[in-house]
Design goal:
- The chain has 139 residues and is mainly α.
- Helices cover 78% and strands 0% of the residues.
- The chain is elongated, with a radius of gyration of 18 Å.
- The protein has one domain: Four Helix Bundle (Hemerythrin (Met), subunit A) (Up-down Bundle), CATH 1.20.120.550.
- It is built from six helices and no strands.
- Helix 1 runs antiparallel to helix 3, helix 1 packs parallel to helix 5 and helix 5 packs antiparallel against helix 6.
């Protein structure tokens, strides 16, 4: 199997991160322009209450630098160790789908139950990938 196939899901998460970052920037401009948020808030990110739409996007942007970091490391290990195969590739794309669903829910209606299910789904997929790699490397 082509080892590069494990990198495409990484690109998909990077794309999501950039998209949410751009959305956050747009929301920041909107909060300053339309909702009266003082620009000085962004010096230390404190001193005011953010509008809900900006708080959701900001929180989700930060979230994209938490669990996905483990995904990046895992995919790099899989790639560099030439372990890319169909199960890893399918699981990686399932993780990506869970992260896009999580973003859609978190930035959208923010239903906590749905968001938790998307998060747990992605976490379980990632755990399976890590366990599989550990078994391969130790066995």
């Amino acid at each position: 199997m082509n080892p590069n196939l494990i990198i495409f899901p990484v690109f998909a998460i990077v794309l999501l991160t950039f998209a949410v970052g751009i959305l956050m920037l747009k929301c920041r401009f909107k909060a300053v322009k339309e909702d009266g948020l003082n620009r000085s808030y962004f010096l230390l990110n404190k001193g005011a209450r953010l509008p809900d739409y900006l708080a959701k996007v900001t929180n989700h942007y930060a979230n994209l630098f938490e669990l996905p970091v483990l995904f990046y490391v895992l995919c790099l290990i899989i790639y560099s160790g030439n372990h890319t195969d169909l199960p890893y590739t399918v699981l990686a794309w399932c993780f990506v789908i869970s992260r896009y669903a999580h973003a859609y829910i978190h930035i959208g209606d923010n239903n906590v139950t749905h968001r938790m299910l998307a998060f747990l789904g992605g976490t379980l997929i990632l755990a399976v990938m890590w366990i599989r790699l550990a078994v391969q490397l130790l066995g």
